[in-house]
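As a warm-up, study this chain.
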Amino acid sequence: MRELTKEFFAAGTLSVARKLLGAEISYNGCRGIIVETEAYKTDDASHYNTRRHKAKALIETYGHLYIYLNYGMYHLLNFTTEKAGIGAVLIRAVEPLEGIESMQEKRKTTNLMNLTNGPGKLCQAFGIGPELNAKPVGESLRLYNRKRIPDIEESTRIGITKATELMWRFFIKDNKYVSKYKAAKL
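Now compare it with the structure written out below.
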């Protein structure tokens, strides 16, 4: 499979969020398929507005990791986007492929369905922490192009209180590793 480079992330945030679905992530002996993403730009829920003092990577880069601590407990993985703008894609869930025993040990669970089905869970399972913040994609955490285009659904984002009307959450239809199955209301 072809490794994704910085240039993949130069495109618009919503496009990148969709194109990451089905891509493979590899780090620390663990590997999985990205099954759920959320897009953030300059909307009211974005760290561009809410944490600008801590969001330097989000504002100044594309193709870099943006890791932050949520609720003082969970690290969350984002990729910065847009060569000519501001954006980031939060990785919400991954389907585990390799390094499962290591993930189970780090998460202290043998339940495969509960291993990486949330942004904090997947960071804990993969051992992703603040030391990766602002690092370029491919330096230590690697991404590989998807093998096929999956069926994608969308919904509003989860766990935010601002800009809740935006349909900027994307996930692989019927994938059992998606954090919460909340499809768009038609």
